[in-house]
Amino acid sequence: MAYRKANAKINASRSAYYTALLAEAAGDQRTMWRTAKELLHSDDRQPDVSPPEAAKRCDGFAKYFPEKLGRIADTVRTLMQSAPYYHLQPTRRHLPDKLCVLYGVTVDEVARLIGSLPGKTSTADFMRTSLLKSTVDAMAMPTVRLADLSFSTGVFPSALKCGRVSTLLKNGKL
Predict the structure, then answer these.
(1) How many domains does the chain have?
(2) Of 45, 46, 51, 87, whose CB is crowded by the most CB atoms within 10 A?
(3) pLDDT in tens, 96-112
(4) Which residues of 102-125 are buried (b: 16+ CB within 10 A; e: fewer)?
């Protein structure tokens, strides 16, 4: 119980601190965004995983589901031994594909996906969505090549591993 009270006081103190910072920053947009960024911890970055470690994780993930399905099948088989005969109709067992294989994409798939993009453009985008849609014939093939390289090497460009969290003000208050 004491840890809950301490945690509640810490959270209340943190809340009061950021509320005061945001109140002081009222009218100063730069300070407001710096405080919001600090509040959202947007500078926290996870360390990059080494290629051998990434491969190890992928292999473990790829093995997990087939092993899990095998355990489920064994449990079902054990339970079915006590079931009446008419429940024991043979079924064809499907062996799942390994999840470590990603198949290449086609120009038609990429063109269809680009065509289905919403018209909105983010400031994090390298090019406007409308420009990408209007140049789909020229951009689909390089996009396919990038996707295929990423799938075959298991490497995704670091420059594209970014996201942006932005606070939307409601009624001028946070």
Answers:
(1) 3
(2) 51
(3) 565 566 677 899 999 99
(4) eeebeeeebbeebeeeeeeeeeee
